[in-house]
Fold each of these.
Amino acid sequence: MKLALIGCGRLGFSILQGLSRAGFLDVSVFDVDKSKVDKAKSLGFKPCQSSREAVEQAEAVILSVKPAVVEQACQEIRDCCIDKLLISTAAATTLSKLKSLMPQSYVVRVMPNIAVSQNSSITLLAHPPDAPEEVLEKAVNIFKLLGEVLVVDEEDLERATVISGSGPAYIAYFTEALVKAAVSIGLNEQLALKLSTLTLSGASKLLAEAGMSTREVIDAVATPGGLTAKALETLDSLKLKEGFTQAVLEAYKKLLSIRQ
């Protein structure tokens, strides 16, 4: 299957990195910024001079542009994307909006995260009720190259945008804080980063692969009256969970305010 990718920003380029790691190079790439197209070319992908050129050569199109330019991008490729699969990564741009812009295309929404670059994303996929099964299969298979895929309804995709889509930034933010704390008690930064990232990786495996609950992991580590319990008591006194919940709610409100 031949792909086109329109928009080679952070997420678009991360998708290309993942496809490259998976050995899938049959992708025509366009971005208005030629330097980004040159980066894609360096990975082995085909550079194009226009979005139309990229789409005309493809069976399926990944539209990875900001919500503000979705309409313009669709106008440029509408008449050469007839009966083709259009996969949009744009946050807050609904299926109904995409269908109104691309009435003769099969539209699907996805929400991956930047871990696609390491083929470790969790990608949420939403589709119209009347989407043909073979179209969905094609979209799912593309993103299975880049990690796990969950097919969900559109409302859940939007809610998950501020969890799995934004999630790598939250985890990096927490890791940054853990490294800073480690340095404050005398560890060098390089060792602190290695300890923090490997510990996060191990904890994730306990939750995702070993099937432990978050409470089971906490109870397995935090002995009553011990060091970990004291640290968690301090975090609770600082209302960390409440602050985190509020942060996610504010991000979701922002998404709803720009939805089109």
Amino acid sequence: MSKYKVFYLDDEKEDLTIPYKNKLEITGLLDINLNKPYNFEKELDRLIEELKSCDALILDLQLDGPQEEDSAIEGKGSEEKKANDDEKKFKVRYQAPPLAQMIRTLASEGEIPDLPIILCSTEDKVKDSFNRDFTSHDLFDWTFLKDDIDEETINKIVSLIGGYQMLNKNKKDFSTSLGRDYNELDQRILSRFIIEDNPPTHEIARVIFKDIVQPTGLLINERTLAARLGVDMSKNVGCWNAFIDKHFSKAKYDGVFHTSWNRWWNDRVNDVFEEITNENLASLDANSRVSLLIEKTEFKDLIVAEPIELFESTNYWNICEITEMPLDPFEGFKISGKEEPKPWQDYAFISLFAIATKPDLIKKNGIKIHPSDLERLSLERKKID
């Protein structure tokens, strides 16, 4: 299998960036072309040529560290050489977002191929700069932290590349891209692309990835699947894995980006549960759901999930974003995002237990409670303080 070529732009010194490059190449799937930034116009000229043969672009968030020109001046005296070295140094006066914007524009105009643009940085820089600038979030397909590079990071980059390649081939064939008949879905999701003659691939990719794959709604992740079935997936992993492989494979999402983002179609999960039990999933509590699954299938070792501490309901439908444990959304507290969920999306939730016991994690993740739940939270806090 040939490697995917990735152009990586970072202003840090090589003793810092080469270890990142080596980590990204460790599985043999990626060929990382590591570079320091030029001034804006020169960098654009380089990228226009380089990206024609690349599969993805990785940008460091802050590219404005001092740089040096490529050419060296030899045979000079030490004073003259020092003066020339000082002249060669220059200050890059841009960061990743404006460069990404130009790359997206050039791709829309057909000057360069449309490919994933991935942001990388340190935790502090993402928190202090990027997370506050909502306007630039849609320019990047995904963000990873440099200190957290592992095999999952690599696999997600590969999945993004594969998704773009599929979308470039089947740009307006949404049924192929999503792995199911698009007519079965909410037509509002991709409607703007149906009437456009040649929509940019990165726009389609953004809507599919950020409006369908990442949020809970049409698709659900494995933790949410377990919550809705009422099962504690961590107590008997082998039984759980065999159970979902046997009975819920028909509900599995196999569209673009599925190789690294494990998802299930929510409506099909409901249908499968009803086929097995002849009952409506949402109308039952966790004990009833699991009892029926044990009764109607060969998986007798499924274990009911217990409520999160400080909660009582087992009418699970979502998870706490901090503990990843199941919760009843009527007990949980909605998380405020950069915008309200779209009609086909759910809110994300956090539990009172996480709020009371894990304030550092909440701060680290930038979680804020939705204004509509602040009064109720204040009342609940008084009960436990």
